[in-house]
Structure formats: C-alpha cells, structure tokens
Specification:
Largest sheet: 5 strands, mixed
Strand order of the largest sheet: 1-5-4-3-2
Number of strands: 14
Distance between the termini: 79 Å
Strand content: 5-15%
Shape: rod-shaped
C-alpha cells in the first residue's frame, strides 16, 4: 500500500575538510546530507504516519525536491519555479474534472517534483481524472489515507533542505580554503588533486580538450577502473553531467584548455558541482601563479608514467590503463624504448609531432630523457628510430646529442626492461671516450664490454670482483692513481698519450704505473691481467655512476 524508501542515512565520506581537535588528530566535518528525492520524503517517519500511496508517476520518484509548498489555489502552477513538492487537500478542485486535469497539467508545466493529496471531505478516494492526467504527464501523485498535518511535513523537509544548503556552502568554502593554502605553499598539481579526491570520495581526472588524461587522483584501484574504460567514460563525461560524472571547464578569458572530471560522484549533484567548480578555480589559479601551461601538465603526466615504467616498482600491466588514457596507442603496437642524452624534452616532443610518430617524452635524472615510441606492427622500427635521431641531430649544437635504443618490444610487459636497457646504453655512452664515433642510434651491441658491465653493475658477484681487483687502490684512496690507470687502459696502454693527457713526463708516468702495479699486485704488460683490471675499473665506475 505504501511506497516508501529507507530513511535518510548520514554516512560520512572520506576526505571532507579537516578541522583540528586539540585533544587528538585531525577531524573532518561531516559532508552535507544528500538532496532529498520524492522517494526519500515519502520514507520520512512523519510522512509514513499519513499512510502515503503513490497512485501515478511511480517511475519518477527519484526526482529531487527543492522545496515543499502548501497550496490550495487552482492555478498554483504560476507560483512555482520548479522542483517543489506541492501539498493540497483539493478543496477547490472537488466536483470539477476540468479543473482537476488542468491543475495537474499546470504543475507539470511548472516542473513540480510531485503533488501530495490529502484524502478527506474533498476527495475520499484518489480522483481518477487527476490520476490519469498525472500518469500521462509522468508527475508523481501521492495520496495520504490518514489525516496528516502538512505543517509537520514542511517543517521536516525545509529544515533538512536548509541544513543541506548550509553544509554545502560550508564545504565549498572549506575546500576553497584548503586548496588556496596548498597553492600558497607551492604544492604541486598532484597534491591539489589528492585533496579534491579526498573531499569528493571518488576518482578525479584532469584532461585536455581532446580527453587525453593529464593527471589523476583517488584510490588507485578505482582510478585504474576508470582509466581502463576511459574512452567510453570520456564520451559520457563530455556529453553532460549525469550518473555521478561531473565536470568543470578549465580556462579563462574565453579560452578553455582542459577539464576536471569527478568520476562516479556518489553524493548529490549540486554538491558535486560545487566541488568541481572549486577544484577548477584552484587549478586555474595554480597554473596562473606557477606560470605553467597546460602542456607542462602533459609533460608531468608522461614523466610520471615513464618514471614508473623505468623504476619497475609498479607492474607494467597496471600502468597500461594510464598509458592508454594518456593517448598512447597500445593495441597491437611495436614499442621502441629510447633514452636521449643532451636532448631537450620539448624539442624531442616537437620532433615526434613533426614526424607524426605517436610517443611519450619525459625527462629523467642526470640529463637523460626517455622516449617511448608506439609504432604500427608493419612499420620498420629501426628505420624510424634512425629517422627520429637524424632529425633530432639536425641544427646547431645538436650534433652531440646521442640516442640510445633498446630492441623493439611487441609486448607491453617487456617495455620496462627495454627502457632500462636503453638507459644503460645511454649511461655507457656517457662514459665512453669514443662517444663521438658512435652511430646516431646507439644500441647495446655498439658499446661492447662497457655496455655489458653497465647491465651487470648491480650484480653482487660483479661488485665483489671489482672491489677485489682494485682493493689496493680503493683502500688507500688513491684517486690520482685510479685516474691514471683509467686513462692508460682507455688509450690502449699508450704511455705517451697517457703522459700527455695527464701533463706529466714519461719518467713520472712510469713511476705512477709502477706504484699502481705494486698496489694491485698485477703486471699491466700482461694482456689478461690488464683486461681483468680494466673490467674491474669499468664495473667500479658504473657502480659509482
């Protein structure tokens, strides 16, 4: 007989604005109550006492109730602005079917949320004319079978709505204050998004206008779920704000350059829009004060992804949704890992765009820049890598730029190992005295023994070998003698060239070489012993690097 929902439950969401309690840790105020729907109003304890029955429009009970209005006037529709639940006894409508139908149509035109009719002397039973008209209009018509004081319902609903609005405004100001404080403290973009995600209790995504993901925040598993199906979600979020997908534009002065999207916000839409708007304001302010462009956010996104790939801490499979959402083609592709020495990331990105090669670019440590190319399976990976390197080395000052490459990978799970291999090759090139004679695209086969040692430098057996072979010099801190030994071996044991490079006479060099041999207990004129020391020195230098 009755149509009633569960009473409203106040569930605190993680991430509401924090306030400090002197006696304990930070305490966050409860979020605003969700907006009341017709169904929720009918589930209130006071309303249940009137034995409500939905006689029309049962499929529209989730409409939001903006206000409750008691009115007996037949033309009440002209007094409404939408979203009202109208309470009436119908005393002015009794006996006039035309007025009853027009009354329903008037409320429908005014976009009322619902109409509640108290049965009594005017209408002892639900009127068929009003029921049929309400059903056709999709307007919920509820009758109360027991006498019910309308004042109690209006008091209950109005007080809840007022509390909700006040809490929403309070939350909005708390979020603005928290984000402004972070911006003032120079916090990075990710810290701001983490704060927004805490308040909204859902994944937060920042995109450019092409829906390419620039940054994310929120629970990692929930973010991964969103990114895994990002193409569909991007279209959904781009087309409107429904089902918890709430967006706000980023930009100013009539120019938009991105969006922030709350993905699957479980609170009421009005609160979600407030959060999204406050977040958008903060991101625009962050960009303005930091002097950063939207493009730098793309660079940060690529840097975070490639750094995680190189580091290997996060499994590559878990990073695949991020790569796809960042705009990198990943289905049935050939991946070419590159590391560039002495190359500007912005220039590398421009060259990629100029050549029409899909890829990600990110600066790593020590002047290295990682590039991950994504090519079609039928393209020549080596030829395109060479074309990229040749174009990159064109221009003044670019001839010293070296591109280190690993073998092409067809499986995404093999990409991290490829990036690490390219990084090892780049590091080996940096240590090589013959770097100028190497090809534009340097591979592991081009750096020979030095490259092998670089790859094995973290092996404990190699570390032990290097320390054992060089112990006589390392224990005594003989850095000068180590430098002479390094030059002597790198020049192919050319004494004249070594003396010249170290600006000493040949007799002085002989004395130093004798001291080196005495401390190490080796004969550097013996090829095998010299080779052993050379390998140990390469391993030592690689470990130090």
């Amino acid at each position: 007989m009755t149509t009633a929902s569960e009473p409203l439950k106040h569930v605190p969401a993680p991430g509401s604005p924090a306030r400090r309690d002197p006696a304990g840790p930070a305490v966050r105020p409860e979020p605003p109550e969700p907006g009341l729907s017709v169904r929720q109003v009918l589930g209130l304890e006071r309303v249940l006492a009137g034995e409500p029955e939905v006689v029309a429009g049962a499929g529209q009970l989730d409409r939001p109730v903006r206000w409750v209005h008691v009115a007996e006037a037949a033309d009440v529709g002209v007094m409404l602005s939408g979203g009202e639940m109208v309470l009436t006894t119908g005393v002015l409508l009794a006996g006039d079917a035309t007025k009853q139908a027009e009354y329903i149509h008037s409320l429908h035109r005014a976009e009322a949320a619902a109409v509640v009719l108290g049965l009594g002397r005017a209408f002892p039973a639900p009127p068929d004319v009003m029921r049929r008209a309400a059903e056709r209009c999709g307007l919920p018509l509820v009758v109360l079978h027991r006498p019910f004081p309308f004042a109690e319902l209006t008091e209950e609903v109005q007080s809840r709505l007022v509390r909700r609005k006040f809490a929403a405004v309070s939350l909005s100001e708390a979020v603005r204050t928290a984000l402004t404080a972070l911006i003032t403290a120079g916090a990075p973009l990710q810290r701001l998004l983490d704060e927004v995600a805490q308040h909204s209790a859902c994944p937060v995504v920042v995109t450019n206008l092409a829906h390419r993901v620039l940054a994310t925040a929120g629970e990692r598993s929930a973010v991964d779920d969103v990114l895994r199906d990002w193409d569909r979600i991007a279209r959904q979020a781009g087309g409107g704000q429904g089902d918890g997908w709430i967006r706000a534009e980023l930009g100013g002065r009539g120019e938009h350059w991105g969006r922030i999207v709350l993905c699957g916000h479980r609170g009421d839409t009005a609160t979600g829009r407030l959060l999204a708007d406050r977040a958008a304001e903060a991101l625009v302010l962050h960009r303005m004060l930091g002097g950063t462009a939207a493009g730098s956010w793309e660079e940060q996104s690529a840097q975070s992804l490639l750094t995680d790939l190189v580091g290997g801490i996060v499994p590559a499979r878990q990073l695949l949704p991020r790569a796809r959402a960042a705009g990198l083609p990943v289905n049935r592709r050939t991946f070419v890992p590159l590391v560039v020495r002495d190359g500007d990331a912005a220039r590398l990105d421009r060259v990629l765009r100029l050549l029409g090669m899909p890829g990600l670019v990110a600066e790593l440590a020590d002047g290295a820049t990682a590039v991950l190319l994504s090519l079609a399976r039928d393209q020549d990976a080596e030829a395109l890598a060479a074309r990229f390197a040749t174009r990159l080395r064109t221009g003044a000052g670019a001839r010293t730029t070296v591109v280190a490459a690993a073998g092409a990978r067809t499986a995404w799970d093999d990409v991290p190992a490829g990036l690490r291999e390219a990084r090892h090759v780049a590091d080996a090139v940096a240590d090589s005295p013959a770097a100028r004679d190497l090809p534009a695209v340097v591979r592991l086969r081009d750096v020979h023994l030095r490259g092998l040692v670089r790859l094995l430098r973290d092996d404990p057996h190699v570390q032990s070998f290097a320390e054992r072979e060089l112990d006589g010099l390392l224990r005594g801190g003989e850095d000068d003698l180590l430098a002479v030994l390094r030059t002597y071996l790198a020049t192919g044991r050319n004494k004249s060239r070594t003396a010249q490079l170290h600006h000493v006479s040949r007799p002085a060099l002989y004395r130093r070489l004798e001291a080196i041999q005495a401390r190490l207990g080796v004969d550097l004129d013996d090829f095998e012993q010299a080779a052993s020391v050379h390998i140990a020195l390469l391993a030592h230098d690689a470990q130090q690097g």
